[in-house]
Specification:
The chain is an alpha/beta fold. It is 24% helix and 27% strand.
Length: 197
């Protein structure tokens, strides 16, 4: 539609964060994530940035409280012991957004969602997430999960976005992956037994 702009689900400008030991986690990164897009990266609002701005679903940190922004998010934590109070992860994640009357397309943040899952539970999680129309931001080292879920991937190194593009293009760039200590997902690697000939 000409002249009609859909607001970004997440917009980050010059975001910076440094760990207590002085290690830079984010060093002036900027990015935009469209509504309904599934992107591999990380921003949960659990830690305060040292600099920069974050807009999530039209809410901007500074013009509203961090609590207001957090209420608009569904977050899946890396460790199930961090789960808040509902009997299932799905109910826990949906509690805040549902009780605020937000639509099902509300934003969903996932921090290493496949950590500590056995293969069957991991596959069930992937199928569940594939069936959602939510905007998804996934922080993970599980590149096969990214291949299954995310059409766009951001590679962060030393606090900078060093690559941002279609997942399938990022994962075949072996020089890029090797430069940052990554390997192609197992699904894209040749079987060593089969390739012996």
């Amino acid at each position: 539609m000409s002249g009609f702009l859909v607001p970004a689900a997440i917009e980050v400008s010059q975001l910076a964060f440094t760990y207590a030991d002085g290690t830079p986690a984010l060093d002036g990164i900027s990015l935009t994530i469209a509504p309904g897009e599934s992107v591999a990266a990380m921003l949960t609002g659990l830690l305060e940035p040292a600099a920069g701005s974050i807009h999530i679903g039209g809410l901007r940190r500074g013009s509203c409280s961090l609590a207001e922004i957090r209420r608009s998010l569904g977050i899946v934590f890396q460790d199930s012991d961090d789960q808040l109070f509902m009997p299932t992860v799905a109910e826990d994640v949906a509690f805040g957004p549902v009780n605020l009357g937000l639509p099902p397309e509300a934003l969903l943040l996932l921090d290493e969602p496949s950590a500590n899952l056995d293969p069957r539970a991991r596959r069930r999680l992937i199928r569940l997430l594939q069936g959602l129309a939510h905007t998804r931001l996934v922080a993970t080292h599980d590149l096969d999960l990214v291949l299954d879920l995310c059409e766009r991937t951001l590679v962060l190194a030393a606090g900078q976005i060093v690559a941002d593009g279609p997942t399938d293009r990022i994962f075949v760039d072996t020089a890029l992956l090797e430069r940052y200590g990554l390997e192609p997902p197992l699904a894209l690697q040749r079987c060593p037994i089969c390739s012996r000939g």
